[in-house]
Design a protein that fits this description.
single chain; 423 residues; alpha+beta; 8-stranded mixed beta sheet; 7-stranded mixed beta sheet; 30 strands; rod-shaped
Length: 423
């Protein structure tokens, strides 16, 4: 019996296998063929960041392979604003365009770049999950000086502090350099020192000048640059104001009759002074008002003001805060012997310098007076009286008149001796 059951079981198994094979074949014939799956889109390489000056055109390039049925879009990364989809621009910015090349390259172009275009842009594929790449545009802007936040021309008193400012904008951030307009070295004070050092330039938006001296007066140029042409500059004039000081080139001059004699004074003053020449008397301080009938108190006569004309030639040459005053006395005569004053005044004060003009007598025998002899006389006079402002010189003339007489006698003696030697 067991053998029979085993045979029956084997027959049933064979029948089932045959039926299953036939059914599988039938199902395979009835079901359609599934197409192979599309490859996923991928980016080729990366988007290169670019830098361009404002006003130029910027291009970002996005390359995609296996795009298939998917689409490419461009967005602004900062706020996800859609700029373009496939080849169609959807933004209202007419400076933006998209170029589709060789079925796989998508170029985003932005013309006439502005600062507002600076930032990053996204190339996006609408796959699942979404794929993206980002490229950035840096917009360079040339420097510009902000006049409202920069210094205008300034004037300060000598010894006071001053700071001149120059603010500039641009991208990259501009460098600010200070130089003198005349090309001379700048004089800057060492920190915690009274010493002034010479430098060609100074870097920084604020140029601090403590305890100003008159030598630092002038026009300064603020130059802003950031390697994006053009660089720009601004001129700031710095005036240092001080009362006049007067220095005569000689305090005792001699000349033979009939010659032309030139007297000269150097004036330092700011603001520009009013200068003039006087003859005779003594120049009194500006607050001295004791004058009666043209005669000064203490027996001093009023000086005579000299005017440019046939007798006197008056000229001035100004160089910065220095002025050279020149007086030419034409056809020197005995009436021209006396004291001459060069006077200079501005809003801060008044000063004068005094010179004594005397006659050199030409003795029979033709002694010629050379410039060297006159320089010797002038040197003796200055050594005896010293140099300085005319206020002190007036005091010397008033208190020690014998000194001028002594010097004249000494000068005459020297000339006689030189004349004898020449013969």
């Amino acid at each position: 019996m067991e053998v029979v059951y085993m045979q029956i079981t084997m027959v049933l198994i064979l029948i089932v296998k045959c039926l299953h094979g036939s059914l599988s074949a039938t199902l395979q014939e009835a079901s359609p063929q599934q197409p192979p799956a599309d490859p996923e889109p991928e980016f080729e390489g990366t988007i290169q960041n670019v830098t361009f000056p404002a006003g130029r055109e910027a291009v970002l390039t996005c390359s995609v392979k296996n795009l298939g049925r998917y689409k490419v879009g461009w967005l602004r990364a900062s706020d996800q604003t859609v700029l373009a989809l496939q080849g169609r621009v959807v933004t209202h910015n007419n400076r933006i365009s998209v170029v589709h090349e060789d079925m796989r390259t998508w170029r985003l172009r932005i013309r006439q770049l502005r600062e507002s275009d600076r930032g990053c842009y996204m190339c996006q594929i609408n796959a699942s999950p979404m794929k993206k790449q980002i490229g950035c545009i840096d917009v360079q802007v040339p420097p510009d000086i902000i006049n409202e936040e920069s210094s205008a021309d300034i004037a300060v008193q000598e010894g006071e502090d001053a700071t001149i400012v120059c603010k500039a904008v641009g991208h990259p951030t501009p460098r600010v350099t200070w130089k003198r307009e005349d090309g001379e070295y700048m004089l800057l004070r060492k920190p915690q020192s009274r010493e002034l050092i010479r430098v060609e330039s100074f870097n920084g938006t604020h140029l601090h000048l403590p305890k100003l001296e008159r030598r630092q007066m002038g026009a300064y140029l603020c130059i802003a640059s950031n390697d994006v042409p053009p660089a720009v500059s601004k001129r700031v004039s710095l005036s240092v104001h001080f009362a006049p000081s007067v220095r005569p080139t000689s305090q005792l001059l001699g000349a033979p009759l009939g010659s032309d004699v030139q007297l000269e004074c150097t004036v330092e003053s700011s603001p520009m002074p009013v200068s003039y020449w006087l003859k005779g008397g003594r120049v009194l301080p500006p607050n001295f008002a004791g004058i009666t009938n043209g005669v000064y108190e203490q027996g001093q006569m009023r000086p005579e003001m000299l005017l440019d004309g046939p007798k006197y030639g008056i000229t001035e040459e100004r160089h910065g805060f220095r002025t050279n005053m020149r007086l030419v006395v034409r056809f020197f005569s005995p009436n021209d012997v006396g004291t001459y004053h060069c006077v200079s005044t501005n809003s801060l004060g008044k000063a004068d310098g005094t010179m004594r003009l005397y006659e050199i007598k030409i003795h029979p025998g033709g002694v010629q007076t050379s410039d060297d002899q006159l320089n010797i006389i002038g040197g003796l006079a200055e050594a005896a009286r010293g140099r300085g402002n005319s206020s002190a010189n007036s005091l010397v003339s008033g208190r020690r008149p014998w000194l001028s007489v002594l010097l004249v006698l000494l000068a005459s003696s020297i000339l006689v001796t030189l004349g004898s030697a020449n013969r």
